[in-house]
Amino acid sequence: MVTSTSLVYLIALPLFGSAILLLAGRRSDKWGHLLATALSASSFGVGLYQLSQMLARPTEERAITQKLFSWINVGTFNVDAGLLLDQLSICFVLLITGVGTLIHIYSISYMSHDENRRRFFAFLNLFIAAMLLLVLGDSYLNLYVGWEGVGLASYLLIGFWNQKPAYATASKKAFVMNRVGDMGLSFAIMIAFATLGTVSFSGVQEASHTASKAALTGIGIMLLVAATGKSAQFPLQAWLGDAMAGPTPVSALIHAATMVTAGVYLIVRSNFIFDAAPTAQLLVVIVGAITLMFGALVGTAKDDIKKALAASTMSQIGYMVLGAGLGPAGYAFAIMHLLTHGFFKAGMFLGAGSVMHGMNDQVDMRRYGALRKFMPITFATFGLGYLAIIGVPPFAGFYSKDAIIETAFNAGGVKGILLGSTALLGAAITAFYMTRVMVLTFTSKERWEDDQHPHESPLLMWLPMAILAIGSVTTGFLFTRGHALVNWLAPVVGEHAEDEKVLLQPVVVSALALLAVVIGVAIAIRKYQLSDVEKVAPQNVSFFTRIARKDLMQDSFNEAVFMKPGQTLTALLVQGDEKVVDGAVRGVGTMALGAGSALRKTQTGFARSYAALILIGAIVLIAGIWVVTQ
Amino acid sequence: MNALTTMMALPLIGSLLIAIIPSEQVLRIKQATFITTLLVAISGVLTWIKFDSANTALQFVESAKWIPSFGINYAVGVDGLAIVLILMSVLLAPIVVLAGWNESEGGRWSPKVFYILILVLETMMIGVFAATDLFLFYVFFEAMLIPVYFLIGGFGSGERAAAAVKFLLYSLFGGLLMLASIIGLYVISGANGGHTFDITRLSELHTYMSSTTQNLLFLGFFIAFAIKAPVWPLHTWLPDAAAAATPGTSVLLLGVLDKVGTFGMIRFCLALFPDASKTFTPLILVLSVISIIYGAFLAIGARDIKRLIAYTSISHFGFITMGIFAMTSQGMSGATLYMFNHGFSTAALFLVAGWMISRRGSSTIADFGGLQRVTPIMAWSFFIAGMSSLALPGLSSFVSEFLVLVGTYTRYPVAAVIATFGIVLAALYILIPVQKALHGPTTPGNENLSDLNLREKIAIAPVVAIIVALGFYPSPLLNVINPASAHVLEVQGFTDPVPSESAGK
Amino acid sequence: MNPFNYLYVAGLLFTIGAVGVVVRRNAIVVFMCVELMLNAANLTLVTFARINGNLDGQVVAFFTMVVAACEVVVGLAIIVTIYRSRRSASIDDASLLKR
Amino acid sequence: MTFEAPVLHYSILAPILIVLGGALVGVLIEAFAPRASRRSSQLFVTVASLVIALAALLRVRNQVSVSAAMGSVSFDGAGFLLQASILIIAILSVFLIADQENFTALAAAVPGSEEERHSLQADLRVTEVYPLTLFAVAGMLLFPISSDLITLFVALEMLSLPLYLMAGLSRRRRLMSQESALKYFLLGAFSSAFFLFGIAYLYGYSASITFSGIQASIVGGSGNDVFLLLGIAFISVGLLFKVGAVPFHAWTPDVYQGAPTAVTGFMAAATKVAAFGAILRIYYVTFANAQWQWKPALVLIAIITMVFGSVVAISQRDVKRMLAYSSIAHAGFLLSGVIALSKSGLEASIFYLFAYGIATLGAFAVVTLIRDSAGEVTDLNRWSGLGKRSPLTASVFALFLLAFAGIPLTSGFIGKFSIFSAAYESGNTSLLIAGVLSSAIAAFFYIRVIVLMFFKDSVEDGTSVVIPSALTTTTIAITSAVTLILGIYPAPLINFIATFATFVR
């Protein structure tokens, strides 16, 4: 395999940036954000350069590696600090650095009033570095480092305004739930090492040919657990909504475009395992399907624009996971949707941020309305993203999502029909709630107070939105020309033979999908555009709406099943340690003391009793010896 | 003069010098102590550099007759495990002195006493790891208690006297059980080729013991070490002691003294009683797993920041013992590395916590809040320390913790799996205090706390540096540890389990 | 006659003395009981001298008498001092030291 | 029948004779010397005769003889070591006794009477205590080397009678002092009656009063085992009474508390050496072959004694009583040395006796320093904060306590180690375990006192530390130095003992 010496710069540059900014402290307030942006951009540059290099090489030599040093080396457990750049990771590298850079730029203006902007940029750079490590690591353990690194960055950024207790709690929640997923990843690594004797991608792939189904299934399931944690998939989805506590650029970059898609990357990267472990693969599609419905349903009930978008992110990632679960047929499409989603969802989040910026941080969509007039650019870019996500041709979402739906239908048998129809239904709901967002925010009549003065955001903010909008228009088209992306990824995720017998022809699927979209849009327009909307969410709503607003009771569930018992257990143990464990120890002491004062009483002070003691002693002694000797 | 002996002599000399400085000149005394510990640290680093990691035999060996008629020698020497722990101890000492620059005031006695005790303790810390004569080891093992006892009881806070007594009685009890075992060994050695305490010769004795004898003697040692380490359920002295002691003392207590327990398990329990070790491994693994989870839960429930750190240590020591008795190269090396890393991450936690407490005048977590805004540097130092305590990848403790888990999994999957839940609990027991103390609105009383001063920054910087550096590049230590731990396992007759499905087979 | 009977007598005397020490309160009487025990021992010695047919036992008996005499001197001295300071020869009164 | 003149080896008997001579001179001084000059002259005579006796003893250290006095004394290495220890301890105790503050002005005077007040005003001094001490020492010297039953009995009385009197000479709390004298005397006489009865039966068993004769007939197995049984049992009662083994211990606390502290120290240290010397000889030489008879019983007594002493000591409030109970516990430890019945057991016992005697003497010497207007303060609660008031005194006392507790780097540890290993080597595992456990219990109260002295705040009730007289200072200095040195580098003494410690048969 071709080795390179320049991969490390991809990571080193932003890492360096964050280090500088954190160590220099306030001294770097003046120029910190600029440095960070520049470094992120230059990392993007390196990415482009690597792409050009890669394109220059023949297909089989496109993947390149770089070994930095031997990281952990104990017995047969040898892990190098090594990087791997192949067709799959380059996509991510460009997405991360590209979108990342745009969001840096956006943030310069968005955070300009925050006294800690420098620290914000330091964390952004830290995130970029960690995310790059995640996608560039050449072994599961290296990936793990990036994996938790992004978790840390996300924790820091969600809690960036942690003086608000709620935000602090949100960040903690995110970290802890991610840790649950990370636990899965460590299990996967342990099993891999114990059974296959290696944890590097190449090693595991090579061993996976001979390994037993059981082992691979175990690894696969554990990887899935990890993915659900990081990508907010069912059942570890609960943290994503609260994660919106972070500044909007963070939501755009981390909780829409990149980090939350890491799970998808992990599954696609481990395709060789899932291909060999059908059970695990089945679980993947099930998780994907459930989550895409879950997110979609939650999305319909949210009035907080960011939470609505978050729910939609969850749902969209559900699509990706579903795709990834469909095996070689789906990997490429999952990645494609991931990339397109990266563009349009990031764009929409930035749009949301721009709206909040104009509405001095109001997030309740019921207090928006008719913003079209006041912030046209935001409206335009957001709108393009909207069209992309609901899957209107020829926008990006159409190609990627359609492909997934189609593959789902063609997965074969009942499974195929179920998955396909779920995906289709999901598309309809997506159309509904996204239209709802669109309408409530931009087109319906205005519902904000008079003291609000909506205005368009400055250039630094709308420029990135515009670029992302362009992306969300064009990418789908580009990726699908002559199966560009599919062929590009084939060396990594494996060729997929075009199966001749298909349940539904692409045309049919597209037609159905469009139909679903139209229905969804129609309902939404009728419900929100053509009828008035209360400024405060009505309470006399259907039971369904109520629990949808409560994220389908996910928090109540976690609280009842994990938190409360956990707290009780903790309290019990604390008591027990004090009373029982330590009590036993103290008991011994008290016992000794008691025995002491009891025996003291034998010392009556009367000489005669002492004499008696001696006499008895003598008799006992004689008797004793007698007994022993006879 | 032998490198180890020199290292042990230096602090004693220093303490004598300090003894002649009039106790009014506190600054002079502090400087003298700091310089002494610094010198020791330097010589320690030099020794570590000179150490030939390829060679599994004991190095820097020195032996002199002490009590010939009992076959007792003053014998010192180090292998890869010992040198790493000595390195840790001598590196921590100057940091502790510098960090706790003012903690000697307000004690029962003059600062002079404090620093003399600290230096005497340092000598014994080095000696206990360097001793290759069981008797010598025991002497250090027990004599160590006295300075610590006075450090806690004389300079601590709160229930210091009670805590000190609890600590001493617990340890003495363990020590006496160990003494019984030592006498047993001594007698057995006398019956088989002459009285001796030389550990290499003692390690050949197990062939002469009945399994019952071996088990009993093993227990004598193990209980003593389990109290030191501390392993559930023999841990209850630790939170009290740690809560009462000054931060610096706590660092030495949890960072170094408790390591004597885990070190002793490798050096004596495994080496002297291989069969018994095998017999008891299941039990010990159970205890370790319990310690991991139990300690974590108690840390979550802790209200006092020092107790919290103590409980986290109980959890961490669970990992160490588990790694040791997993009997795999990853577990063994991981455990040893863990001892080193735990020394520093706990040091960081305790020192920063100590600064927070001394500024706020309270060690209750609830009394803090919003420190990140008032005292950013202190807050971030605490955060980094916490991250290393929850074994964040990229920080040193991750490497060791993961090695322990992987190493355990290959032989005892169940234990490893349960233990892994500890990493989720770790996230909780670190982030909860982080949120309560550093985040949220600034609670009244904290508005004008002062941030770290230069001295404190200088003290904490190397700790953080080591934590980060070893996270990315642990090889310098692993290269020293690996041959030694491999040697231990080889003596034990253990080989790593082969991957059950490796492409090779 | 069977010399062993003397041993029984001596044993009896010894027991009487021992019990006396335990049951009597007056220091003097207690001391007398001790003397009784000593003489019981003497009787035993002499008897054994007879049984064993050598004089060692009788020699010991002489020594014992001397020693006993010394004990009387010391003992009475102590008892008298106590009596003078306490105006009572009951050893039960002297029980300040206890526990 | 012909009469042969007795042959006496005066060189061997010299030490005893010198001491006796000194005593007689002392008596003459009491009779004729003017009051003013008595104290100095008595002190001189006493110390001189003791020192000369020691010198004379050293001259004959290599001699071994069973016929030093027609077979009633057998001198050998062990005898030499025991006598030497006794003399050294005696000299150091005399330094304490010389501090007249301990003694009544006029023993005959009724407490609180006119007579007493006069004598106090006249500033009279009892100086009889010096000859009494010498008589006792002479008895102690004879006790461990006597090799027939007569000599044994005479020696026993010779060391006891003066002690009975000395116990009653306290200057303060005279009622208690006299009471202790009475109790000591009555119980002592009681026990010596048992002793004598035992002698009678041993004689009855073996038709001989020499140890060798008795041993011969035990080996021969002729003779009535019932007599042997009664003999051993009754003699043991007498001897165990002297060393204060349970259940014959009851006098110890009362007498230790009531007697003048200097005398208590002398009694506790020297009597133990002498009595254990005799026990060692008689069990090692005479009864060795009958161990099947007495060993189980003695093991039981030893265990009970250790545990009882340690447990009861916990709840003591008076320092002298606490030391008394601790001496009971130590009697138990020493008995395990007797039971060992081996060369190492003998060496260990002798080392232990010396180390313990020195430490005990030192401890009581310190007790004499803590006083208030009404004399010595022995109530432990009033010792609190001693470490603050006079760190040196407190530290020295702490050192002795640590020695009793058997902490390494003190003589006590070496003693414990050697005596327990001897016991275990001879197959008495139960003693080892019991010893270890009771040591753990014992640590409890030794540490309590240390806490009291160092970690509790002092109460202002006039309790103060007096400036010790030069002689007392010497005693304390020497005893503490020895305690420390024997802990750090005991090899010379151990070797010395090893070369001498043998019993001639």
UniProtKB/TrEMBL annotation, chain A:
TM ranges: 6-24, 31-51, 87-108, 120-137, 183-204, 210-229, 250-268, 280-301, 374-396, 416-439, 459-482, 502-525, 610-629
Organism, scientific name: freshwater metagenome
Gene Ontology terms describing biological process: ATP synthesis coupled electron transport; electron transport coupled proton transport
One annotated Gene Ontology cellular component of this protein: membrane
Domain spans labelled NADH-Ubiquinone oxidoreductase (complex I) chain 5 N-terminal: 71-121
InterPro entries documented for this protein: NADHpl_OxRdtase_5_subgr, ND/Mrp_TM, NU5C-like, Proton_antipo_N
Recorded topology in the membrane: Multi-pass membrane protein
Predominant location category: membrane
UniProt keyword list: Membrane, Transmembrane, Transmembrane helix
UniProt cross-references to PANTHER family, sorted A to Z: NADH-UBIQUINONE OXIDOREDUCTASE CHAIN 5 (PTHR42829:SF2)
The name this protein goes by in its record: Unannotated protein
NADH:quinone oxidoreductase/Mrp antiporter transmembrane domain sequence ranges: 139-423
TrEMBL record, chain B:
Transmembrane segments: 6-22, 34-51, 71-101, 113-131, 137-155, 167-188, 216-238, 279-301, 339-357, 377-400, 412-432, 458-475
Pfam (any one): Proton_antipo_M
Location of the NADH:quinone oxidoreductase/Mrp antiporter transmembrane domain: 131-425
Subcellular location: Membrane
GO CC list: membrane
GO molecular function: NADH dehydrogenase (ubiquinone) activity; NADH dehydrogenase activity; ubiquinone binding
UniProt record, GO biological process: ATP synthesis coupled electron transport; electron transport coupled proton transport
InterPro entries with a match to the protein in the record: NADH_Q_OxRdtase_chainM/4, NADH_UbQ_OxRdtase, ND/Mrp_TM
Membrane topology: Multi-pass membrane protein
The family this protein is said to belong to: Belongs to the complex I subunit 4 family.
Protein name per the record: Unannotated protein
Organism for this UniProt entry: freshwater metagenome
Automatic annotation (TrEMBL), chain C:
Membrane topology: Multi-pass membrane protein
UniProt GO molecular function: oxidoreductase activity, acting on NAD(P)H
Cell compartment(s), UniProt: Membrane
One protein family per Pfam: Oxidored_q2
Signal sequence interval, chain numbering: none
Main localization, broad class: membrane
Keywords from the named record: Membrane, NAD, Translocase, Transmembrane, Transmembrane helix, Transport
InterPro entries reported in the protein's UniProt record: NADH_UbQ_OxRdtase_chain4L/K, NUOK/Mnh_C1-like
Record's GO cellular component terms: NADH dehydrogenase complex
Keyword Cytoplasm: no
This protein's name: Unannotated protein
Source species: freshwater metagenome
Lineage, top ranks: unclassified sequences, metagenomes, ecological metagenomes
From TrEMBL, chain D:
Main location: membrane
Keywords: Membrane, Transmembrane, Transmembrane helix
Compartment annotation: Membrane
GO CC terms in record: membrane
Keyword Lyase among UniProt keywords: no
GO molecular function: NADH dehydrogenase (ubiquinone) activity
Ranges annotated as spanning the membrane: 12-31, 43-60, 80-98, 181-206, 226-251, 263-284, 296-315, 322-342, 348-370, 391-411, 431-455, 467-489
Domain NADH:quinone oxidoreductase/Mrp antiporter transmembrane, first and last residues per copy: 146-441
GO terms (BP aspect): ATP synthesis coupled electron transport
Bilayer topology term: Multi-pass membrane protein
Stored PANTHER family: NADH DEHYDROGENASE
NCBIfam families from the UniProt entry: NDH_I_N (TIGR01770), PRK05777.1-4 (NF004441)
Protein name (Swiss-Prot/TrEMBL): Unannotated protein
Organism, scientific name: freshwater metagenome
